[in-house]
Amino acid sequence: MKIVLVGCGTTGNHVLPHLHEDVFLIDRDIVERVNLERQPLFSPADIGKAKAEVLGKKFGFSYAVADLDCESISLLADADLVIECTDNLETRFLINEYCVKNKIPWIYTGIVGKRGRVMKVDGDYCFRCVFSEVKGLDTCSTVGVDLAAAQELGNIAAEEVQRKSRGLWANGSWVKIKRNEDCPVCHGRYAYLEGKKEKIVKFCGSSRYQFKGNFNFEDVKERLHGSGEWFVHKDFYVFKDRVLVKAENEKEAKKKFTEVIGM
Ligand SMILES: [Zn+2]
Q1: 82, 99 Cβ separation under 8 angstroms
Q2: Helix (H, G, I), strand (E, B), or coil: what is residue 183?
Q3: What is the rounded CA–CA span in Å between residue 236 and residue 46?
Q4: Rounded distance from Cα 126 to ligand 1 centre (Å)
Q5: Spatial separation of the C-alpha atoms in residues 25 and 17, rounded to whole Å
Q6: Three-state SS for 14?
């Protein structure tokens, strides 16, 4: 069974040690000092490195340093099971659409403060049936993530993976979920797969902002004397399709991006 784990942050850190099968890791973020307290798989020596790379090498799993969007979502193509451990609704909606469309079972995990949730999506309802697009809810940036809750959530998710691999998914003690007749995804409308996305995203629990598109990677690489598939330049991590900027707020991030990368 091939498992794709998306998100190597706090939840991912607590799910990953339970996985022993063919695992592929995907994460878009960089290890920061502030992560070390809640993400026990990282050490001070990992600061500044890509999370997926650090954990992939540590556990001997294959990995991709990537932000999932309507193109890179095909990284999930040969998954038998996807475990979602990200911290944002947009990626969850995208994963949901891809997995529903391609009939790939997936597990959603979510945690805010002491409240955690694990939900499997593999049947006649989907994630979008339950969660609609709302903004302004508590996120981990504003209320934090409780470490004990993250550990418990990791255990529950890992149990579900075990059940799934033994063909016992139907036996779990799950809350019954009904299909929402108004759900666009269940009616075959995939807005996120068709490219709906936010242009700037702030990463949970970090001081980084992500910008996507609107720059030519090769030009920027030459100008900033970078090398490789992605490179670091001062407060910037420059990838082929996106840039991470360290900044105090969105205004400062935009200013830095415009000055150094250009628009
Ligand atoms: Zn649905």
Answers
A1: yes
A2: coil
A3: 17
A4: 4
A5: 12
A6: helix
Q: Which of residues 52 and 134 earns the better pLDDT score?
A: 52
Q: What is the mean pLDDT of residues 120-147?
A: 76
Residues in the chain: 263
User: Which has more pLDDT, 76 or 202?
Assistant: 76
Residue 93 confidence (pLDDT): 93
Taking the centre of ligand 1 as the mean of its atom positions, its distance from the CA of residue 187, in whole angstroms, is: 7
2-16 confidence digits (pLDDT tens): 999 999 999 999 999
pTM: 0.86
The structure tokens 């420059």 sit at 238
Residue 188 has pLDDT above 70, yes or no: yes
- Residue 235 near residue 256 (C-beta atoms within 8 A): yes
Burial class (CB in 10 A: 0-12, 13-18, 19+), 25: buried
Is 106 within 8 Å of 96 (Cβ atoms)? yes
Nearest partner of 187 among 259, 126, 132, judged by Cα? 126
- Does residue 111 contact residue 140 with C-beta atoms inside 8 Å? yes
Ligand 1 ion: Cβ-proximal residues, 5 Å cutoff: 126, 128-129, 183, 185-186
Lowest mean pLDDT among 9-18, 147-156, 165-174: 165-174
Contact predicate 108/92, CB 8 Å: yes
The CA distance from 236 to 94, in Å, is 26
CA 46 to chain centre: 19
Ligand 1 centroid to residue 96 C-alpha, Å:
9
Which of 224, 199, 221, 226 has its CA nearest to residue 210? 199
C-alpha of residue 108 to centroid of ligand 1, in Å: 14
Q: pLDDT (tens digit, 9 = 90+) per residue, 30-39?
A: 999 989 988 9
Tokens found for residue 149:
């809750």
